[in-house]
Design brief:
The structure holds two protein chains of two kinds. Chain A contains 15 helices and two strands. Chain A is mainly alpha-helical. The N terminus of chain B is likely disordered. The chains are: A mainly alpha, B mainly alpha.
Chain lengths: ~300, ~300
């Protein structure tokens, strides 16, 4: 009996330590974002909790105060040099527009296609699925050079619309396969019953299937949102003035030094919404990450 | 298009206004309208760019005059003779292999540990997910902050342990830089493995384990003789998805080291990006990027064939 108790204790202990290690970088990041500049850049020791928390970094990055006046308010000469391009509001707005737009476009397109694949038999359907799957594994770098040219010709370069299309492109395979797996869970009898009652395919989709996969649809939308929100490579190549948060944040690293306070404040603001969203759809997460291959 | 279709209307009101009857392939009874938007999108912005890329790779760019001439084999013979490509392939392969092994072993171990119905483990599993949704570019920055030579918390710990000297920060040293990036990748993606392995463990049947326990098998034997073989399908799937994502790594390298020091952490995708941004040699950048794609296709096809992965 005593032995079993020790075992349970050890299991709790190691589990907590390991999870703590994985949470630590996020916690440290959040802590850095409320540190005054002197605590972030202390070269002699690591400042953990012995500082006066400040929201200055959020004022500059999220609310757009100028960096210079922020430094002068704090009666410090530290951080008054350098440019004033630490206003992250534009990038937050861009990120929201692109993520919401591409989530909407992706789920709409993928919903239609997944119904077609899940409910209809046609020649080459397996080949079609394989093609979709191969798109998921395509390295974005392989299409980025022509995509820049094509977008330039179509006037989509450096525009929200262009980025929405690009993010939709990379999210379609995931959304399509995932929604297909949710639709496959709905028995075919239900369609047949509806069609015997005189419903058309579209009515069947809209009034019968769609309400039944609401949970799966929400999970798919959240994953699309998160993948668009975190995407870096396409945004980096396809935009110059419109910057999403992940690209904007890398511009805070300069040759004269990195403004860690501002970087962590904008980073924390970018991460928080994702945390809330992902915990909401935790139940479907495994299925989502494996594109429907594992039905948890 | 779909709304106009007469079959859309309530069939009880069949008689009435004469509507134009659409051909069957334009009605919702045919797969075409359902698949059209997705297919159009993937053809125009997915397939066409790849063919364009292939076409582009057949041009030789003169860096001085910026004139591109049609020389189909120029870039392709250059790519196989380029030492930087060979280095990039070896960096990419070691990155993929090392990170994948660590993530798989850690993921399986942590999943076994957290697979418990006791109080509190649900919360621990939820917390474990959090790294997954941090934008990779932000992850790169987090680790840059913690690796900083003068005030980084990880650097200070390593100095304290005597594993690292302040004159050689982890990312500034050619022999440790790749490990620095791998640690960031492991931090972000081990939770992915944990989640998938947890799903696999939960789906295991109970009977064989009870039978094994009656026969006096140790936990160790049960793990290697029962758990691992029964989870092999799921492990193969996780390795495939993660392996491909690792092979096309870009964000961490770009943000954390920008292929440096020198070219110590230059992967294939990072090299293609460098050619694009620094040399503006678009045909050669396309060639290197296509080489990455071809390697992914070959390796993943072989893997799928051997391990019979199905989606």
């Amino acid at each position: 009996m005593h032995d079993a108790k020790t075992k349970v204790f050890l299991r709790y202990f190691t589990s907590i330590i390991i999870v703590a290690i994985f949470v630590f970088p996020i916690a440290w990041w959040g802590l850095t974002s409320v540190k005054p500049i002197s605590a972030v850049f202390d070269k002699d020791r690591i400042v953990v909790f012995d500082f006066e928390p400040t929201l200055e970094n959020y004022r500059v990055t999220v609310f757009g105060y100028s960096k210079r006046s922020s430094a002068e308010d704090g009666k410090t000469l530290m951080g008054t040099s350098g440019n004033n391009s630490y206003d992250g509001r534009g990038s937050i707005v861009s990120s929201i527009i692109v993520a919401v737009g591409s989530t909407f476009l992706t789920t709409t397109i993928a919903l239609l296609a997944s119904y077609g694949i899940s409910r209809m038999q046609f020649w080459g359907s397996q080949g079609y699925l394989n093609w979709i799957l191969s798109q998921r594994f395509l390295p974005p770098i392989a299409i980025i050079v022509p995509l820049v040219f094509i977008f330039h010709d179509l006037g989509l370069r450096d525009s929200h619309t262009g980025l929405i299309i690009a993010h939709t492109l990379i999210n379609i395979p995931l959304a399509l396969l995932l929604l297909k797996s949710f639709m496959d869970d709905v028995p075919l009898d239900i369609d047949q019953a509806a069609m015997i009652d005189g419903a058309t395919r579209f009515q069947c989709f809209w009034k019968v299937i769609l309400p039944m996969i609401r949970g799966g649809l929400a999970a798919t939308a959240v994953l699309c949102f998160i993948f668009s929100w975190t995407e870096f490579l396409l945004s980096l190549f396809l935009t110059n003035s419109i910057r999403t948060i992940p690209v904007k944040i890398t511009t805070y690293v300069t040759s004269t030094g990195s403004e860690w306070g501002y970087i962590s404040a904008l980073g924390t603001s970018a991460v928080l919404p994702s945390f809330i969203f992902i915990l909401l759809v935790q139940r479907h997460l495994v299925r989502g990450l494996t594109m429907g291959a594992i039905k948890d | 298009m779909v709304r106009l279709s007469p079959v859309m209307r309530d069939p009880r009101k069949k008689a009435g206004a004469k509507l134009i009857r659409l051909p069957k392939w334009l009605t919702s009874e045919h797969p075409f309208p359902w698949l059209f938007p997705a297919s159009a999108m993937l053809i125009v912005f997915g397939l066409y760019p790849i063919l364009y890329s292939l076409w582009l790779s057949m041009f030789k760019r003169n860096p001085a005059t910026r004139i591109e001439t049609f020389r189909p084999s120029w870039n392709w013979s250059k790519v196989f003779a380029d030492d930087r490509v060979i280095d990039a392939v070896s960096v990419t392969l070691s990155y993929t292999f090392i990170a994948l092994t660590i993530q798989l072993v850690l993921g399986l171990g942590i999943a076994l540990l957290l697979d418990s119905d006791r109080k509190g483990f649900g919360l621990l599993r939820s917390l474990m997910i959090l790294p997954l949704v941090v934008p990779p570019a932000v992850t790169g920055m987090m680790f840059l902050l913690m690796y900083d030579g003068s005030f980084g918390v990880i650097s200070h710990m390593l100095y304290g342990l005597g594993w690292l000297s302040p004159t050689q920060p982890i990312l500034a040293n050619a022999s440790t830089a790749l490990w620095g990036v791998i640690i960031a990748d492991v931090w972000q993606w081990t939770p992915f493995m944990v989640l998938i392995m947890l799903a696999g463990l939960r789906a295991l049947p109970k009977d064989p384990f009870e039978a094994a326990a009656i026969d006096g098998a140790t936990d160790f034997q049960a793990f290697f003789r029962l758990t691992l073989p029964m989870m092999s399908k799921i492990i193969a799937l996780a390795v495939l998805i993660r392996g491909i994502d690792l092979f096309r790594i870009f964000d961490y390298i770009k943000v954390m080291t920008d292929s440096g020091p020198g070219t110590a952490t230059e992967t294939l995708t990072a090299y293609a990006g460098t050619i694009y941004f620094k040399n503006a040699d678009f045909p050669y950048a396309s060639t290197v990027a296509l080489l990455t794609l071809i390697m992914i296709l070959i390796i993943s096809t072989i893997f799928i064939k051997i391990f019979k992965v199905r989606f």
